[in-house]
Design goal:
Elements lengths: L45 E6 L2 E4 L14 E3 L4 E8 L6 E6 L4 E6 L5 H4 L17 H11 L7 H21 L7 E7 L9 H16 L12 H23 L5 H8 L2 E5 L8 E5 L7 E5 L6 H14 L1 H23 L8 H20 L5 H13 L2 E6 L6 E6 L5 H13 L3 E3 L9 E3 L3 E2 L11 E2 L2 H6 L2 H9 L2 E2 L2 E2 L3 E3 L6
Parallel strand pairs: 5-7
Antiparallel strand pairs: 1-4, 1-14, 2-3, 3-8, 4-7, 5-6, 8-9, 10-12, 10-13, 11-12, 14-19, 15-16, 17-18
Helix pairs in contact: 2-3, 3-4, 3-5, 4-5, 4-6, 5-6, 7-8, 8-9, 10-11
The structure holds adenosine-5'-triphosphate (ATP) and (R)-mevalonate (MEV).
(R)-mevalonate binds next to helix 6 and helix 7.
Family: Belongs to the GHMP kinase family. Mevalonate kinase subfamily.
Pathway: Isoprenoid biosynthesis; isopentenyl diphosphate biosynthesis via mevalonate pathway; isopentenyl diphosphate from (R)-mevalonate: step 1/3
Organism: Pochonia chlamydosporia 170
């Protein structure tokens, strides 16, 4: 949930503990449980967080919407965190601070191409379903997105993408009277590792802007599930637009799972309609080892590569994509079968075999990488599980389903080998919450300040937190003892 802290604008009720009035969904009254101290001038309005994801089956084939395209996903922690700080009304600037990629840029709000975005034929509403980027809007942003012209080409391109995606949403949703703002992001998800870092940011930016527009009333404890679902849908629609700016032709699966959380089966049959998303409440706790090759890759590049191969060999690639769909649907049937038991060798072996087949098909599409093949080789050599790449491939991460009886020394040997060869291993909690809001940005995080209502997370603390661990410790959604008091989530359904 999003929280208004500053009290300098309409989003706050004057005490800093109010929630904005809501367009369409009726007003929401929510009071902070804890007594609040005076806000510091560095305090942000609110924080938004969204998780990354692990694709267990169906990457790439999902882009082509085959029947039945089914994809199993698990969103893991860690999370992204976006922070927004509202400046004084007299400041007519919008600033973006993407610290992980050293992108800091400020635009003068009055110099942005509002006239193009506000034309009646172009203007979108906060609930619009946008399925392609408008070339006129893209062209209008062109003079504003080359924010690091003196940087090396690769950095320049990443900064350009970030600036472009942010401005596309900012100008589509905002208006020339939008107040001056600073958006600061720190992420605990490795970039370009196949764990959905871009989708997580897409969801954070979308949620933050929609909250600022006061188009979302939640999350709040008494929210009816239909209302929560509608709001999640709005966030997801605009997150998809952000993903289109970064990736060109995304399926929408990454932003969907980052918005909704949990494990889901995702289907996109028709791009003109929202995707069908089925949460899997009882997704088994599979013993997965997640390994990062530390080989950077680009989803846009890998998706374009498969597209090129499909154009050259339409029938052949078509049948490979069909086979991948069949693997994904077989896995969905298997895992949701009453007989499935994640502690039993037979059940795990069947899922493992499907992973091996899925990986082989991905290899045939050319989206593996020697460092991914090396992980598979090491795991196969020790005979301790089944491995596949996850996400777009071309580097990034692999997942290994471990056999139930793997002797500890064998696993330790593998981990030692991986470390020597510069791989990173992830411990993750899978199937967690989706987008969350901290409003106001006050959190009980195990310090003495908890007794006084919690610690106010100001921008300085946020920027100075050391590394991923520091960010997690300061503002992480989950503290050591479970969910942190403060963060709120849209609950789309109960079991
Ligand atoms: N922490 C971050 N700060 C700013 N931009 C980021 C950050 N993380 C990712 N991005 C944006 O997302 C792009 C990487 O997205 P990409 O889809 O290639 O990787 P991914 O989302 O981690 O992987 P996958 O799509 O396979 O899950 C970067 O080039 C950058 O534009
Ligand atoms: C490769 C892909 O299927 C998953 C990337 O995480 C692309 C997409 O679905 O947009």
């Amino acid at each position: 949930m999003v929280t208004g802290v500053n009290g300098t604008n309409g989003a706050s009720n004057g005490n800093g503990n109010g929630i904005p009035h809501v367009n369409g969904d009726g007003p929401l009254v929510h009071r902070m449980k804890a007594h609040r101290k005076q806000s510091s001038p560095m305090a942000p309005d609110f924080m938004v967080s969204a998780p990354g994801k692990v694709i267990v089956f169906g990457e790439h084939s999902v882009v082509y919407g085959k029947l039945p395209p089914r994809l199993l996903l698990l969103p893991p922690f860690p999370c992204d965190h976006i922070f927004t700080l509202r400046l004084s009304k007299s400041k007519r600037t919008v600033s973006l601070r993407f610290t992980d990629i050293d992108l800091v840029h400020t635009w003068n709000i009055d110099e942005l191409p509002w006239s193009t975005f506000q034309q009646p034929s172009k203007k979108k509403s906060y609930f619009s379903l946008v399925t392609e980027l408008d070339p006129d809007l893209v062209a209008a942003l062109e003079p504003h997105v080359d924010v690091s012209p003196d940087s090396p080409e690769d950095i320049r391109r990443v900064h350009r993408n970030g600036a472009f995606a942010f401005l596309y949403l900012f100008l589509s949703l905002g208006s020339p009277s939008f107040p001056g703002c600073l958006y600061t992001l720190r992420s605990t998800i490795p970039i370009g590792a196949g764990l959905g870092s871009s989708a997580s940011i897409a969801v954070c930016v979308s949620a933050a802007l929609l909250i600022q527009l006061r188009t979302l009333s939640g999350p709040h404890p008494d929210q009816p599930p239909e209302e929560a679902r509608l709001q999640i849908e709005r966030i997801n629609r605009w997150a998809f637009v952000y993903e289109m700016c970064i990736h060109g032709n995304p399926s929408g699966v990454d932003n969907t799972v980052a918005t909704q959380g949990k494990a889901v089966v995702f289907q996109r049959l028709d791009y003109a309609k929202p995707p069908a998303v089925k949460p899997l409440w009882d997704f088994p706790e599979l013993p997965l080892l997640l390994v990062d090759t530390r080989q950077p890759k680009s989803t846009a590049h890998e998706v374009a590569k498969v597209g090129g191969l499909r154009n050259t060999h339409p029938k052949l690639v078509g049948s490979i994509l069909d086979a991948m769909d069949k693997v994904a649907s077989s896995a969905a049937d298997l895992i949701t079968d009453e007989e499935f038991d994640e502690e039993e060798e037979e059940s795990l072996r069947k899922v493992g075999e499907l992973m091996t087949i899925n990986h082989g098909l991905l290899v045939s599409l050319g989206v593996s990488h020697p460092r991914l093949e090396r992980v598979r080789e090491l795991v196969d050599h020790e005979g301790i599980g089944w491995t596949k790449l996850t996400g777009a491939g071309g580097g990034g991460c692999s997942i290994t389903l471990l056999r139930p009886d793997v002797p500890r020394p064998k696993l330790a040997k593998l981990e030692e080998r991986l470390e020597k060869e510069n791989y990173a291993k992830f411990e993750t909690t899978l199937g967690g919450d989706g987008v969350g809001v901290l409003w106001p940005a006050i959190l009980k995080n195990g310090t003495e300040e908890d007794e006084e209502g919690g610690m106010e997370i100001d921008l300085e603390k946020f920027l100075n937190a050391e590394g991923t661990e520091g960010v997690e410790k300061l503002v992480g959604v989950h503290g050591d003892g479970g969910e942190r008091e403060g963060w709120k989530f849209w609950r789309v359904e109960s079991r």
